[in-house]
């Protein structure tokens, strides 16, 4: 896993939290929730290959 991925995840987290707070203060809680959900889905798509790689490594480690 590269450091760039960690910085991208941190940037998305900061951006989503700022947008969410602005939307909440303007009375749009539903859009704030959807923004948070979209940020979560985006980050999950980024880390999904690493999760698959982890499970493959664990399977190879414990294979007899």
Can you give a write-up of this model?
By secondary structure, this protein is an all-alpha fold. The chain has one domain (3-62). Helices cover 89% and strands 0% of the residues. It contains 2 helices and no strands. It has helices at 3-25, 29-62. The longest helix is centred in the last third of the chain and has 34 residues, at 29-62. The two termini are 27 Å apart. The model has no long low-confidence stretch (mean pLDDT 94). The chain crosses the membrane at residues 6-23, 32-52. Keywords: Membrane, Transmembrane, Transmembrane helix.
SSE layout:
Blueprint: H1 3-25, H2 29-62
Helix pairs in contact: 1-2
Query: Can you tell me the number of structural domains?
Result: 1
Could you report the average pLDDT, rounded to the nearest whole number? 94
Distance between the termini: 27 Å
Helix/strand order, N-terminal first? HH
Structure classification: mainly alpha
Count, helices: 2
Helix content: over 70%
Radius of gyration over all CA atoms, rounded: 16 Å
Could you tell me the number of beta strands? Answer: 0
The biggest sheet amounts to: none
Low-confidence segments? none
Beta-strand level of the residues, as a percent range? under 5%
Which overall shape is indicated by the principal axes computed on the Cα atoms?
elongated
């Amino acid at each position: 896993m590269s450091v760039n991925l960690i910085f991208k995840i941190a940037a998305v987290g900061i951006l989503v939290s700022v947008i969410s707070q602005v939307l909440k203060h303007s009375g749009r809680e539903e859009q704030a929730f959807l923004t948070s959900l979209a940020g979560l889905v985006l980050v999950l798509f980024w880390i999904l290959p690493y999760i698959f790689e982890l499970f493959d490594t664990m399977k190879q480690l414990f294979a007899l």
